[in-house]
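Consider a typical record:
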Amino acid sequence: MSITATLPHIPGPYLGPGLLPGDFYAYEDLLAPGERETVERLREFLRSEVAPIVTDHWARDAFPFQLIPGFANLGLNTWADPDSGDPEPSNLLKGIIALELTHADASIATFFGVHTGLAMGTVLACGDAEQQRRWLPAMSGFEKVGAFGLTEPHGGSDVAGGLQTTARRDGDEWILNGAKRWIGNATFADLVVIWARDVDTDRVLGFIVEKGTPGFHASKIERKMALRIVQNADIVLDDCRVPEANRLAHADSFKDTAKILRQTRSGVAWEAVGIMLAAYEIALGYATEREQFGRPIGKFQLVQDLLVKMLGNATGSFGMMVRLAQLQDAGVFKDEHSALAKAYCTVRMRETVGWARELLGGNGIVLDYNVGRFVADAEAIYSYEGTREIQTLIVGRAVTGLGAFV
């Protein structure tokens, strides 16, 4: 049997009691029956539609636009329409959706997270009722795709105090000037959340800039080594006029921005778990099929040691994320909880994909074996939504009561 599988679901001798071969403690059993059906529906879509094309698109740094209608049919809403009376989806379900997407491909997970978490999450948290009714239904159905513009060319970790994009009120309009960088989905998004500083009040405000608005220019960032499918953009705002109706009504300070990041940061930690599980499962399948010295390499003690270390990292991180989801559902989680998860899980992810590449030897750097793609993409996940160092300072401040940022 060829080892060049197109999907990181390579079966090994131990499949585990959960839905994923690497779910050693069966965390997915904690999902409600309806939630498991949602995950199984997503997994089949990833298996049949994403897996056959993802490596080619990654190699060409091209986005598979043909997949977008498929997402609309999966029923993966990660928000509840305030007018519907429906309950909010559990944070465990949201997290496992992020895990499953990344298990197939980190770029596809990033597209989904930017759209549903950052863009839709901002409209939900910072828009008034009219703005939510105006944009969320089309975004939920993937008829309109969103992006989130916060990071700037000269500002990353210090963006809270160093935001340079400006907004100036001019009658019933706002004039935006500045630049953004690394904005996922922005080359094709129908609407982009732009954070800017009011020149008169110094407050950080949020705006929806719709596709085709004069003065808005997005250009694709080329020659990336990670998340190559994601269409990251440099944005230039040159006297870009948006109506007052597009100013998010409840976005009045950077604290409102931080509310969004607190939620999405935990999503990045879930992505790290998804990459770990995928890398482990690829390595496990390879170890049972690859033969050296007349036996499968899985019979060698050092190979089993690598596999167990990978499984331990993935299982421990998965457990942390399950508990974080419970804290989120209870409404008691804080910045430091998501910061610790993002810092810890991404460090473990880096270790795990490195061990998978080591186990595959030279095949670990060939895209056909998938591990090389995960190794590269892990580097982006390690850094975005706040570096490990910044997460460490958030947690350090919480446990000592002493701020060490400057």
Q: What stands out?
A: Residues 1-17 have pLDDT under 50 and may be disordered. Residues 254-400 form a domain with the Butyryl-CoA Dehydrogenase, subunit A; domain 3 fold (CATH 1.20.140.10). DSSP finds eleven helices and nine strands in the chain. The longest helix spans residues 254-289.
